[in-house]
Design a protein that fits this description.
alpha/beta, about 170 residues
Length: about 170
């Protein structure tokens, strides 16, 4: 895995259906606690997600020139929306399939009432659930806590590459 680490100064964080309701006309997919039979598709081993409904903003499609989807993982106190403001359209217009999940408890994903009890392992599971539904192994882009989630994901999974933006180091932050 090729990993690109960038540092910034901001620290002085198979899709099941598409809708645009309450998301400012953004294409939003939800990964949720649905079985294969409920989805009408094969979602993989066990046929169940984690029981958490994840908001996923998706733009663009996989192309022959860019076969690896890009998955953008937000930091703490953010959600998928932070990538949607400038980057998703930019990369989609360049021919990339782009996905930005809101990890459990963030954005429009469920679990906000238990946010303080979610662990990094839960966020890694959210990322794995999304990646398992993609047409190809992705390039992962993680900011801050999202970079930490990407690093933990890569301990047991493959990806075409990773970009870490002002990432929490693998030993954590104190």
């Amino acid at each position: 895995v090729k990993v690109l680490t960038l540092i910034d100064c901001c620290h002085s964080g198979t899709p099941t259906d598409v809708d645009t309701h309450d998301y400012g006309a953004r294409p939003v997919m939800h990964l949720g606690a649905a079985s294969d039979a409920q989805l009408g598709t094969d979602v993989g081993d066990g046929g169940m997600f984690t029981g958490v409904m994840l908001e996923v903003i998706a733009k663009g499609t996989v192309t022959e020139a860019h076969p690896a989807p890009l998955v953008f993982v937000h930091g703490a106190w953010h959600g998928a929306w932070c990538w949607d403001e400038h980057l998703l359209d930019y990369f989609a217009d360049l021919g990339h399939a782009c996905y930005a999940p809101s990890l459990r408890g963030h954005g429009a994903s469920s679990g906000g009432e238990r946010l303080r009890w979610h662990r990094v392992a839960d966020y890694v599971r959210d990322l794995a659930d999304l990646v398992d539904q993609l047409p190809a192994s992705p390039v992962l882009v993680g900011h801050s806590m999202g970079g930490f989630v990407v690093q933990k994901y890569l301990e047991h999974h493959r990806a075409e590459g990773a970009v870490l933006l002002a990432s929490v180091p693998p030993t954590g932050a104190v």
